[in-house]
Amino acid sequence: MTAGAGATAREPTTTDAAGPVLQVADLAVSFSTERGLLRAVRGMSYEVRSGEVLGIVGESGCGKSVSALAVMGLLPTSARVSGSVRFRDRELLGLDDPQLSAIRGKGISMVFQDPLSAFTPVYTVGAQIAEAVRVHTETSRDQAARRAAELLDLVGIPDATRRARAFPHEFSGGMRQRAMIAMAIANDPEVIIADEPTTALDVTIQAQVLDVLRTAQQATGAAIVMITHDLGVMAGVADRLIVMYAGRPAEVGSVDQVFHAPRMPYTLGLLGSLPRLDAAAGQPLTPVEGAPPSLVALPPGCPFAPRCPLQVGVCVEVEPGLDPTSASDHLAACHRSDEIEAGALGPADVFPVPPPVEPPIAAIPREERPVVLEVRELVKSFPLTRGALLRRRVGTIHALDGVSFDLREGETLALVGESGSGKTTTVNEILALAAPMAGSVVVLGRETSTLETSTRKETRRDLGMVFQDPSASLDPRMPVGDILAEGLRAHGVAKGQRRRRVGELLGLVGLDAGHVSRYPHEFSGGQQQRIAIARALALDPKVIVLDEPVSALDVSIRAGVVNLLQRLKAELGLAYLFVGHDLSLVRHVADRVAVMHLGRIVEIGAVERVFGDAAHPYTRALLSAVPLPDPRRERVRRRIVLEGELPSPLDPPSGCRFRTRCPLFVAVEPERRQRCVDEDPMGRPQGEDHLAACHHAELRNRG
Asked: How crowded is residue 8: how many other Cβ atoms within 10 Å of its Cβ?
């Protein structure tokens, strides 16, 4: 079961003195490609003991997942694997598939990144968990079915016996991941490998899944190998860490050593590029410029040298070994690790951090600035129909129900909340520039319901859009110059002006104007998003909508894009409507924040006020679930882990829509609870520029 209010992060594990259950030594994995031999893993070594959590972190393509698949024997036959993988003194490399199948799921199990792909869609969840039980034990179908229900109950699936008969698509993302964990622990494995188990999950669901993993570990006593790109998650979960770069470990040590005394510049860069919930608002992040090297053609010397401000001559000539620092159990692959230790260097001492930027208009009080976007009592619903030939309406999805906010010149307003809260629907209603179902949308003084064709086209110039995934939003058939000129051409800009403007845009976002003839696939992910930002700026808009603009990027690259957005906002006087779920990032980029839950804004105000003294229990739970990249603080931090799933917008609860998950609702007296059941709370002032829709906000510390 998931923990309720007051859950705390785990203490460091005292590991089993009997010896490691899994030993990996000098593991190497390579693949033949058209461009040459791709060396995905280059000398990976580690061991893990019962009850221990080993974290493996690094950017995309560093070899994290490939090393895990090699341990499980799940790589394609084209992969060349060498080294040693020993499970309880038994060598796994070289075993055939039937021999490995006897170990998979029984001795070593795996939690995959995408549970929807890992589950078979045509069988029920319970049947698939029961099958995992019967493969390894002499158990009847009825016994296996009961065991499946017990496991689903253990990982916090409500009404487990009934839900075991549901299919994977009938589970939410968080429930599917919990069901995947239930399958992984079905046979009490000694090792659980969790490959990005919280990727793409909302922060509240992420907290639930991590709590379930702790429960699973306590129930089985298993060792866990946790693979992720999120260092913040590792701070509260891992005992030891391996930081990977270019296919091999760059730093290895206890979680405290790596976070509080890093000895490798790459680790310093990763830590500095993390947005922190406990940092001052608006502070620039530490960017790690450049991109990881190609694993087909690695440069000589240290693979991080081209991106490292500390590089010297030996760095580009000799690749450093993974050697002990002053602590024998803390290893770093850096020629200058001793100097980093002696100088007690932090991220800002190694990587140049741009100074904070603030638009000139920030000196003007908010109430005196022009309103560039206003949304009032916006309503949007969708009919739910069934039937093939004769479709009939069976319900209504209430996506938005009375959303109101405004955006002023030169500010950033962030819309935050779980998936299904209505953030994207709100953005779509604004960008449609059409008459809403109910309510109003006013862009730069023009109400969208009254726009004529010519006025609508003119208004579109003032609205830019940056999408979540740059590789999907940029046409792969068009060179960058044509992509940037497309909007200019549509609005009648002359050819010569278009050419000059394209060069200006590339320079504005930090790219070479000579790259206009390149195609999107020839750029890294961070560069692609810079191109997408340049396209959004092409027509000099006043407002830019940023829909999760950096969630698809690695954390080190993300920092540079975030700093770019902040600089452009100051230089060009832009206003941003920022849609996101990463509250740590929101604290860095936003001036104001609106917290959405089930189609409504439950709290809105200045970031400092909302984050500093959140009045709504939902906001408090969201903030509580965000991991801090500080193991010492995570161990003593108390959390509010929400029980259950987001209610269905088909049938929202009466009264307060959050009451079914609200820890404050449980804490107050019965007569106060009845008000939550009967009355829909309206936004009430909690101070200057701070509203919260909660009947009992003054009792917030009781939740």
From this structure: 13
Give the SS3 label for residue 257: helix
Nearest residue to 423 (alpha-carbon basis) of 184, 599, 675: 599
Tokens (6 digits) for 592: 């104001």
Tokens of 535: 């396209």
Count CB neighbours of 17 within 10 A: 7
Share of the chain above pLDDT 90, in %: 64
Which pairs count as long-range contacts for 363-366, CB under 8 Å and 24+ apart, including other chains? 366/408, 366/411, 366/689
Homologous superfamily (CATH) of 16-257 is P-loop containing nucleotide triphosphate hydrolases (3.40.50.300)
First to last CA, the chain: 19
Report pTM.
Answer: 0.87
List beta partners, residue 192: 109, 224
Is the sign of the CA dihedral 41, 43, 47, 52 positive or negative? negative
Question: What residues does each domain of the chain span?
Answer: 16-257, 362-573, 612-702
Predicted confidence at residue 43, as pLDDT, reads 95
In the CATH hierarchy, which fold is given to the domain comprising 362-573? Answer: Rossmann fold (3.40.50)
**pLDDT value of position 14:** 52
pLDDT tops 80 at residue 88: yes
**Nearest Cα to 304, choosing from 270, 346, 352?**
270
Q: Which of 73-87, 552-566, 618-632 has the lowest mean pLDDT?
A: 552-566
Q: Token pair for residue 653?
A: 């609860």
